[in-house]
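writing this on my phone so excuse typos. first protein, seq and then structure
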Amino acid sequence: MAEIVYERMLALADRQGTPYDLAVVYAERQGVTWAGWIEFVSVDGDRVVRTDRETRQSSLQGVTYCATGLEPLYFEGALDRAARRTSDPRPQKMGTSPRAGAGVAHLRVETVDPEVPFRLMAARTLVPGQRRQIFEGGVLVFERTLRAPSSGARGRYDFVAQFGSENAAGIMANTLWNDLHGRGARILVDGEEVGMTNGAIKDALLGAHVS
C-alpha cells in the first residue's frame, strides 16, 4: 500500500501550459525495499500526472529523506517526465526506471587529499546539507564526513547527486571526474566502486536508482 511521505507546494507548468501547484511523493514497499515516485496535481485539480519510479531505498525513511532534499530543478524535470509518461499511449510497467534517466544516487568519495571534498562542493567550508548547483547537471549535496584523512589513511565523505535527465547525469559525471581525477581519489556509487572515467561514472549514476 502506497504511503504519502512528502508534499511540496510549487508553481510549475507542463509543456502544454497546464499549471500545477502540488507535488506529492509516495513510497511503497516492493519486496525488501521501498520505491518512491511523484504525483503532480494541477491547480484546478482536474489533472494528476505521475512519474515512474524515481528512487529505491532500503527503508521508508530513506525515501522520505531523499524527498525532503529535492531541489526545484529536480521537480521541473520530474513534471516533464510525468506529463510525457501520462500522455504516452504505450503501456507502462510499474517499477521500471524512467526513460528520461533521472535519479538520486548516493556517493562516497575516499581520498588522502583533504582539499577534495571542498573542491567537489566548490566551497571553503563543509556543512551537512550543503548544496552545489551544477549548471544543467543537477545538484550535489554534501551529507557528512565519515573520517578525515590522517597518516596516509583515506578520508571518507558522503554525498548525494540529484539529476533530472540522462544528459544531466552526463554533466554531473563530467563534473565529478573533473574534480576527482589525478587526485588519488576513489568514488563509490551506492556502495560500488566506479572507474575514474566520465563514462563509468555516468553509467553508475544512471544505474544507481534502478538497482
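second protein below, same order as before
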Amino acid sequence: MSSRPTPTASTTTRPSATDAPGPRALPRDALGLGLRPSLVGPLCETWPELGFLEVLVENFTGRAQLPRAQLARLGARYPLVGHGVSLNLLGADPLDLEHLGRVRDLVRAHGMPYFTDHLCWTASNGTHHHDLLPAPAHPDLVPYAAERARAIQDFLGVPFGLENLSSYVTWGRDQMPEWDFLAEVVRRSGCWVMLDLNNIVVSAVNHGFDPEDYLRAIDWSRVLQVHVAGHATRADGLRHDTHDREVSDPVWDLYRTAWRLGGPFPTLLEWDEHLPSLDEVLRVLRHALEVRA
C-alpha cells in the first residue's frame, strides 16, 4: 500500500490560534455518527464513547442560537467534521461565496479537520432543488469540476472531500465510469474523497456494475472518511438510498473489502429517519469493528 499523505489545512487561509482552535485530527480507525436532532439529547445525557460526530452544516449556519449552543456543547466533548448538501459543485451557477463563508466560520469555530460535500449539482438559475442530482460522467466536465473543487478547498482552508452519489438514472452523454470521473476530479483538483459505500451498492444494483470495480479505482491515500448507511429495496428491485434502517449485508461486505484494500479510515454511520434508540444506533455502528476484525 502506498504511503498515505496527511490532509492538512492550507497555510494561507487556516485560522490562527487566536481566531479559533486548530483542526482536531481524527484517528484513522475512528467510528463516528451523523449528528441528527433526535440524537442531541441522548448524546448529552450519556456521553457514549465516540470517535467523532459529522455535522450537516446547513443545520448550523442560520441565526438560531439553540442549535449553535448544542453544537458547542457537543464539540467540547467530541471532534466534529463538516458535511454539506448544497454546494452545487457541478452546477452552472457561480459558487455561493456567502454560504461558503458561513461554512468556513463554522469549520474554524469548531476546529473541523475537513469538510465534505457531493460531486453533483443541486441548483439551477438560483433555484435550489433540495436533491443531489447526478451530472454526465464526461471528460469535458472534469476540468470544470476540478477548478471549482480546488477553489472551495482553498477558500475553506481545510481539506475538501468529494462524495459519490447514489443514483437512479444514467445520462446519454456518459463517456466514463463514475468512479473514473470521481478519481480524475480528485487528482486534478488536489482534493480528497468522501467514499459512501452504501451509495456504491445502491448505484451498482441500479446500474448493473460490480461495486468492487469502484473500490479498485480509488486512491485510498486520498480517502478522508467512509460512510455506511441503510437503504430500501422497492418492489421493482430498484434500490433507494433512504438512511432509515440498519446497514445491509451487501454494504457490510463491501466495507470488509474496502478495509482490506484501503484501511484504516474513519467510518461514519448515517441514519436520518426512523431512528431507534441511541444504544441501537451505536450497536449498528460498532458492528464495523467485527466486520473489519
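Residues 101 and 168 are 32 Å apart (CA to CA). thats all i got for now
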